[in-house]
Amino acid sequence: MSLLGKWFGFSADEVFDEAMAEFDQGAYEEAIEAFARCLSDDSVDAATLRLSRFYTAESHSQLGKNRLRTGLALSALQHFEAALQLFPGYPDLNLSAARACRLLGARTRARFYLDRALDANPRFPEAIFLDGVLRYEAAEYEPGLNRCREACELEPSLGLDICRRAIQDHQDGECERCLKCLAAMAVNSHGDSTLHARVADSFMRDGLLEEAAEEYRRATALAPGFADVRCKLGRVLIALGRPGEALDQLREALRINPASADAYAQAGLAHRLLGNGLEAIAAFQKAQSLSPDHPIASQELRRVRGYLS
Fold first, then answer.
1. For the chain, which domains are there?
2. Taking the CA atoms of the chain, what radius of gyration do you get in angstroms?
3. Cα(54)–Cα(258) distance, integer angstroms
């Protein structure tokens, strides 16, 4: 019998226990199938039925979030809508469905779900922020920016400084840059280090380096042991002309993962910018020893040999 079942005093139910075991292991599709067997069994008690409905919705929600993270917006929406059939008033589920609809270009449908989220919780910061983005995309610039600012003031961890820079971009006539910044912030929930890193990656692709650095810092604050995220932060700081700060991040990345060729290569660039020639060569050589075809290390070492010849 599951621990949850014992806690609530359920009778032994092998199907429910199987479903909970699948859920606890993150096997959400299998969990949904098992919970469906519980829901179709007339002998299951009312408390177990309620929990089966809840965990069915939660399984769909987790699958939807996983799909959304990998860009599968239509599949994500299908899972969110399956969860909403069970719990239509949950603001988090409605917000997730609204995000998926926006990515699919279904603005009317996105507005429907977003309004339901805000009806359930008018002070839901992430829903307010998405409301601002939808308004900005519809050329309601001032109302949109005001809603984004309101959301970030309610919950500064959404990215208040980035929001302020986006507003400055708009005031400077850089509407496209402003929208790219706000849209990247609106894609996912910001309570997860992986999602912060994904937002930062999107900022990088759009050339928004300051914004990318801030999001990578948020990711490292939530998950300090992620060497690859620190390496990306180091790369951004180098691009921003801050090699000393970059080197601090890269040294920590190498402490966590001494076999990271990328971190050694980026450290070599930082040393070169700082005028530490011997340290730079040593870092590039280490990177090349770990990855013989590493493009940065190979190029930089060829440059050094050219100077020496």
1. 225-309 (1.25.40.10)
2. 24
3. 44
**What's CA 252's distance to the chain center, in Å?**
22
Give Cβ neighbours of residue 58 (< 8 Å, ≥ 6 apart).
23, 83
164-194: per-residue pLDDT in tens?
889 999 999 999 999 988 988 887 554 556 6
- Identify which of 192, 211, 217, 212 has the alpha carbon closest to the alpha carbon of residue 65: 192
Longest dimension (CA), the chain: 85
pLDDT tier at 50 (50, 70, 90 boundaries)?
A: confident
Reported as a single tens digit per residue, the pLDDT across 94-142 is 999 999 999 999 999 999 999 999 998 888 888 999 999 999 999 999 9
Question: How many angstroms separate the Cα of 225 from the Cα of each of 55, 164, 222, 245?
Answer: 31, 29, 9, 18
More confident residue, 168 or 6: 168
| Number of neighbours of residue 76 by Cβ within 10 angstroms | 27
pLDDT above 50 (res 2): no
Residue 256's Cβ-side half-sphere holds a number of Cα atoms within 13 Å equal to: 17
Distance between CA 66 and CA 85 in Å, rounded?
19
Contacts 24+ apart (CB under 8 A), 37-45: 38/13, 41/15, 44/13, 44/15, 44/16, 45/10, 45/11
Question: Could you tell me the two tokens for 165?
Answer: 């820079």
